[in-house]
Design brief:
Blueprint: H1 3-25, H2 36-41, H3 45-74, H4 79-101, H5 105-125
Helix pairs in contact: 1-3, 1-4, 3-4, 3-5, 4-5
């Protein structure tokens, strides 16, 4: 398996990291598990930002996975290029999450654009 394919697996689990931060920062208890989405919707501050980062991570992961798979299937890009782009994408997502949690909106948005640019780049290098 390539590094890029492992990065897809990492991207799949990043939202759950955000969920954990949201729940812990919001004082989540197991008894709250009957309505976890309601609990997450009630959060403020750090917990609310962590939940928003979770939702955005769920939104972008399919596009990243598709881009990696397309790049593999097209066969025109060097494997090292696909792997580097994948690691850069995961790095941009980690920074996105960190900036979101730290309430650094401009840097967060910059990392979102970087990540989207990296997704586009998979298609560009596959031509």
């Amino acid at each position: 398996m390539t590094v890029a394919l492992w990065c897809i697996l990492i991207a799949i689990f990043l939202p759950y990291l955000c969920t954990g931060v949201a729940k812990v920062s919001g004082g989540y208890r197991l008894k709250d598990n009957h309505d976890p989405r309601g609990f997450l919707d009630s959060l403020e501050g750090l917990g609310k930002r962590a939940n928003a980062a979770q939702l955005n991570s769920f939104e972008v992961t399919p596009a990243f996975a598709a881009a990696v798979i397309v790049a593999h299937l097209a066969g025109n890009a060097e494997l090292v290029t696909i792997n580097v782009l994948s690691v850069l994408f995961i790095t941009s997502r980690l920074l996105y999450i960190i900036f979101y949690l730290a309430d650094l909106a401009t840097l967060r948005s910059l990392m979102w654009f970087v990540g989207m640019g990296l997704i586009v780049s998979f298609f560009v290098v596959s031509v």
